[in-house]
Amino acid sequence: MAASGIEKSTLEGAVKKKAGGKIHLDNFEGFLKRISKANPAGQYDRAEIDAIPCYVGWIFSRILANGDISPCCRGVNMPMGNILEQSFRSIWESVKYRDFRCRAKYLKKSAPFFTMIGCYEFCDNLMHNRQVHKRISGLKTGQRRHLEKLSR
Ligand code: SF4
Questions:
Q1: Dihedral sign, Cα of residue 48, residue 50, residue 53, residue 57
Q2: Nearest atom (ligand 1) to Cα of 75
Q3: pTM higher than 0.90 for the full model?
């Protein structure tokens, strides 16, 4: 039973039926968490967010209509630069972006740096972080070290 009081399979089945069974529901569990009443503070993924590193700085970038580059779905108040003023490459390789990557990977999201992002409310990149973490965890030590060196 989903925390919202609706059976997960019932809800999932209803959504798929409405779409003629032609859709794949990605992260449906995450959706159910967000509509549940189990956590009124809305910090549904807090424990998991701090349990794995955030790799978003290497795998995602959001370009807003005004040209701002947001480092993650929720990072709109922390632009890394603006493509109307600089090339994407110079922003991607900037000290500011490198600093973000490092903090996102190593700091707990309770750190003041992340207040503007509000990671604990909703991390829309959590499923991507899970996937990357799983893949990295499966690497051999030497491969992990090599990757670590490349990512600096
Ligand atoms: S919301 Fe926080 S944890 Fe999620 S991708 Fe952004 S910086 Fe990383």
A1: positive
A2: 6
A3: no
In tens, the pLDDT along 78-92 reads: 999 999 999 999 999
Ligand 1 pocket mutation pick from 44, 45, 49 by most atoms within 8 angstroms of CB: 49
**Whole-number Å distance between alpha carbons of 130 and 124:** 11
Which residue type does 55 have?
A: Y
Q: Is the CB of 119 under 6 A from ligand 1?
A: yes
Q: Is 132 in the pocket of ligand 1 (CB under 6 A)?
A: no
Question: How far apart are alpha carbons 6 and 43 in whole angstroms?
Answer: 20
Query: What are residue 70's DSSP bridge partners?
Result: 62
Query: Any idea which residue has 């030590």 for tokens?
Result: 141
